[in-house]
Design goal:
Elements: H1 2-21, H2 26-62, H3 64-75
Helix pairs in contact: 2-3
């Protein structure tokens, strides 16, 4: 009977070790929760960027004003009848 108790105690200790320190245990759960918080913040930033891009696409599909603005800022587009001044630092 004594050896049965020893075997059961050893099995209990083994399972407790697996629960606390093994793969999928409490330590891994803490690491996963911190990784989850990081991923949620990253997803929130990406969602904000997606909303900005969707608004830009909507502006571009509505009219030529947004297209002209992008052409002016990024490509240096000048319309007919406009005068372009360039200021060069000394």
């Amino acid at each position: 009977m004594k050896w049965v108790s020893c075997v059961l105690l050893a099995a209990l200790l083994w399972f407790q070790h697996s629960l606390w320190l093994g793969k999928g245990g409490w330590r891994d759960m803490g690491q996963l929760e911190s990784g989850l918080q990081t991923q949620l913040q990253h997803n929130q930033q990406l969602a904000h960027r997606n909303r900005a891009l969707a608004a830009e696409v909507q502006d571009l599909s509505r009219g030529e004003d947004a297209i002209a603005e992008i052409a002016r800022v990024e490509l240096g587009y000048i319309q007919d009848g406009e005068i372009y001044y360039r200021f060069v630092p000394r």
